[in-house]
Amino acid sequence: MKKFLLTLLFLVLFVGALTACAGEESESEDGEGSSSDPITLYSPETPDLTNELAAKYEELYGQKVNVHYAGTNVLVNQMMAEKGNPQADVWYGGGGILPFESAVEKDIITQYIPESAEDWEVVENGIKMKHEDDYYVGTELFVLGFSYNTDFVTEEEAPKTWEDLLDPKWEGKIQFPNPAASGTATLMVLSYMMQHGEEEGWEYFQQLAAHSNSIPDSGSAPTKAVAMGEAHVAIGFDFMAYEHQAKGETVDFVVPDKTPILVNPATLVKDGPNPEGGKKFIDFMLEEEAQQILANWYHIPINPEVESQTPLNIDSIKDNAVDLDIDWVNEHYDRIRNEWTNKIN
After folding, report:
1. What is the pLDDT of residues 210-259, one digit of tens each?
2. Whole-angstrom Cα distance, residue 337 to residue 345?
3. CB contact set of 104 (below 8 Å; sequence gap of 6+)
């Protein structure tokens, strides 16, 4: 009986030691999440794309990634509402850097730069690659331009500048996304106003709106309309056109003479539940495996080891990049977006 009790006591102590070790391994040294805790990713990018990225991360690192999809402005509002109890660890994508720049002022993101990007210049080839105080890092390049249906528009006829869109021949044949809802369109409006001033900018967009046959909320909807023959020309990002082209649809893309060319960033959500996991996921976004997935979705990869799957790359587009006044963006982003409804819609 004594021997049985000693054996039982040993087993209890052994199990207790294993439990303690497991508890130590489940938390990082500062208690901020672990490799076993899930990562929550907020993203407005195509759900199939973000789910593919999440699956690849899970395959490589054995850590669950929960993807939450919504439009850029919806996600920003959600993160604002969750400031007292953040639910996300990583925010990836939003039609370029503008909503991320605005988010710094909103205090919903925090500083983190992967080691692989520490030596990057803040601005390279006229393109801002990361935040100067490390609040975000670029993961790929987006070009804002014009898709067109090659059944209705020849390469020679296609618009080459933003002013070309006001040609009477495009009346009733253009679509662009709603800046009150779409980060893509907010970028379009702010960029034009930075170059030409607000008065001229509002006049331009009133004329452009009069030319359009629809102004949908989704950033990708106008390009889809071009592919379906519901519009001849649409404003959107390059990858949207090349996705349709890869499916055999009669769509091509024009890089305007001077246009926004932006990195699409990833950032760490401030006070998220698993910051260590979030940092690891951002590291992954710059690794070849993730960059290849982005390239396969016709995004321009930022990692030089990964080849673009479209005709565009950093060397072919850098001369078209327009300089963006980020301070002006931070000051006017929300106001301009909100004024669109009163002035245009």
Report:
1. 999 999 988 889 999 999 999 999 999 999 999 999 999 999 999 999 99
2. 12
3. 131, 133, 135, 330
